Amino acid sequence: MIPLQNTSFKLDFSGVAGFFGGDEAIAAMTSVHIRGGTKWLGWYNSPGSAAVARKYGELSGSRLWRAFFPGAPGAPEDPTCLFDFYGKSGPKYVAAYSGTKIADTGHVGNLFLQMCLLVKPTEVDRKRQTLPGCVTVVMLHSTQNFETDATLPTRASALLAGVPILSSAAACATCAIFKDWFCFAMLVLGILSSGLACFVIGSGTLKFVPPKPARGSPKGDGILLADREIIVVLGKEEVVNSITKGRFMLRFSSDSEHGPSQRHFIGLASLLLTAQFLLQLLLIPQGTLFGQMLFLLTLAISWAYNSYLSSFERHGMPGRILMTKVLDKPVVKRYTLGTRTAVVVFAALVLQPPNPSEILELLPDTETWKIWKRVVGVKLEKREKLSFDEPDYADLAGNERDLLKLLYDDAHDAYLGYLRFWDSNGLEQEREKDSWESRGDDLSRSMA
Question: Which of 315, 345, 363 is the last residue of a domain?
């Protein structure tokens, strides 16, 4: 006897089953490209079939499939954009030696900034505090400049995939035992459509593509500017270019001349997801209450699993790929200083640009500030101690002299912090020798 057979109550959720959990299902499908080897793990009855079909049907490529899945006006057809691996704005970059200035470092620059912000800062002693800011120093390893596979192995998600897969299979078997063929058929269709979509969409290859370096390029040292954060990057030009000009690219076989059919399979998978959604409207209400409850239970379990997969984006998995696989775990140190003035001076001391006045231009430009910039700029250029005597005040008096003294104190605080946390720890010598491998796990510990 079928449980709950004699009740007159009916669940009518089929109209929303195709849309419920759509955002999580889309995010889970996107994460397939950064979780190595998981395109085979989508065989479960997943919610959000209509949302997934509408989102990824745009990739199908031909006019026929575009008639079924036209997408929003102006929606990108490039899979890299559609899967959100491109399009975000990054911090401004200013090179210390080449004179290069990039107003927007793009998606990769944004990921790099977010990963730097995760590092716990060390406080630098200060006499005063107005608008605190941070200087992050990143010492980049010399890595080979070629395309990199942008995936990370994730054993936990592979093991957890067994939960929705087994629950969907168990629900199928139970419906078959009690001869609820309507719910059984929809469970089988849900498993097949979700599994095929995951396999086909996950067949794309995510790569990190660095720019081609120019011969004879100077050192790539420079700064990235973002609100109260200055990131000093130290390394060869080609490695720094990976941050400022590199990009992720998602490629399907149809993007080359050798395999024009893979995007057509995406269209077929999207069509199958749409058919599943429409058939749910017709067949689920015909099933028994017990079968409907089993169907709903599989959707709930799958939604929870999809929510877990969607957290890979929120928890910075693309950023981890950038830092570990592309940049080979660079050394990252972060320092908090009390004023914007101290932040800029500390960054200039670490960067040691040939023309320090350029970085000092990040500060205001009043007459008092001009005196300060001239004096501090000369001392930075000559690598002199940042201590200030009477001649440095240019015969100022009253409020202007008081302000100049505060600014000099900020510069002196930054100098003392540089000596304590940077120069005295041997990091300056390591920078000169380009021997930072022994500290390559600093970033991993900071993010733990």
Answer: 315
